[in-house]
Amino acid sequence: MTAVSRLSPPYNPNQPLPDPEAVLEVMQRELKRSMGGLVVPGSPRPYFMQYSLRRVHALRLRAAHGALLRSRESTAGQLWADVRVGSHKFDNVFDGGLGDRSEDRESSDWIDAPDDLNLQALQIGLWKLTQIKFDEALEDYYEHRKATVSEYLRDEISSFTRERPVVHKEELHHDPFPRAQWEKTLVELSRRFLDHPEVYDPSITLSAERVHRWLVNSEGTAVVTEDVFIQLGIEGWVLTEDGVYVEGSRQLYLRAVDEVPERAHLERLLADVIEELGALRAADSPGAFIGPALLSGQAASTLFHEALGHRLEGERLIARGESKTFARMRGERILPRGIHVFDDPTLTHCGREPLWGHYRIDDEGVAARRTLLVDDGVLKGFLQSRSPIPGSDHSNGHGRHDGVERPMARMGTFVVEGAPGSGESWDALRNRLIELARAQGRRHGVIIQRVLAGETSTSDYDFQAFKGSLAEVYLVDAQTGKVRRIRDVELIGTPLAALQKITAFGRDRETDQGYCYAESGSIPVSGIAPPILLSELELQQSSTTGYHDPLLPPPFADDGSRGRKGGLRERGKRKKPLN
């Protein structure tokens, strides 16, 4: 019988977690053992391997009507392994890994890390995951070979870049979140919704995550990082006279516990949401619209993210099934003169606002760095992971993933700006908007102040289009200049056409932040942009179904009546103002 040495003693729930260096050493030890031992005669051997471990301490709070609806706190870890067989020139990954769908593979059933980070259990978990990943790599390698015989892979180049090893280690913290304090604040604030029965499904939410990450690879890279992400949101819905539910909301994106604002600030945000819901309830919907549009910096950032940013991700230049919008346009003008675009994950703040897109080392162990994409309107480069693209065989530190899917080039902090001293004031842009509407013979121009979310399609199978869900939008009368709020519309467009319709941009910058979803999963990102004026933008109606009031009012507002009139409003007449 062979003796098996123990890497750590049996688990004691009261014992402290192992030292971060010990975790790193175990990962390096198993990686070295796997690189030397994964051999199948007649088949390619691993030439590169990477392990990563993400341990997330998360708190989720949700309050409404003076009650704590949800309070969940958890800690969980996930393993990830990349096994590449063959060589840097040709291996098991093709199409940049966009078609991997890792969550559907057997290996995704073996990614859980031990909650206590027991070192022996950790090494066993890596061993099991690596064996399955190796089997999948061999299958993919031969599928890749088959594709080279049956298809003409015209955009394929080498499989993997060569990068210098990185050693980067940060201190890890385990301070508890101020859960009781946050719970009390949210519950007390949410009581105000009891005064507004016309607001449906209101909530105040707080989500906090502390992410510890370990990363090692066969080239000698060793990384330990810590990041904190806090999102605070206030939202509610109202039902309009024509039966449409419309949303009002405010969101804060923070990077540290001490950045959570005082109660007075949150009270102002709540008041803003309630006021906005009143405005939305009184607003009308124009149906469809086409004409000149002025977008705030936040709204412009969303447009650039969807119309431009995703199409500059390197894997989309080489993968089958992708439209490759800008693949052959390097050196050509794609934006008006005076506009520059870059992505810089090293930025920590925009003014005083913390940036969610900030990171130091990407998910392939490459240092983050500022990457110039568009210079004076001319396309200069692309976002790159360790998947080479035509004309560039090195990563620029943008390989990112959610810890499950394969990393790919993604945005971090996507910045659009004008040359120093350029750009116009908001009032000047607004005047130009009215002039454009008159020159085009339009009755109105449109001002978009905030966008809730956006989406786009980059597949060559589908239409090349993007869409944005609008939170705050106004029609401007081209003759009188009067402004009125509208609702129930969303912006739509095609990327090349929309970018060519930019006629002017502003001086000030605003941010747009949140989670971005793509093939490598959901990741935190930021965008920074000035206001922009478009000569033409199309809006379409976003809802097609009408609803009626609930048959009964909410219990806290029941005045004893019954039926659809009960307590909320009579038909054709609002009974209770929002403020």
Automatic annotation (TrEMBL):
Name of one Pfam family that matches: PmbA_TldD_3rd
Superkingdom of this protein's organism: Bacteria
Region of interest: Disordered: 1-20, 544-579
Stretches with biased composition (Pro residues): 10-19
InterPro entries xrefs: Metalloprtase-TldD/E_C, Peptidase_U62_metallo, TldD/PmbA_sf
Basic and acidic residues composition bias: residue spans: 559-570
Segments forming domain Metalloprotease TldD/E C-terminal: 292-539
Family of this protein: Belongs to the peptidase U62 family.
Protein name per UniProt: Metalloprotease TldD/E C-terminal domain-containing protein
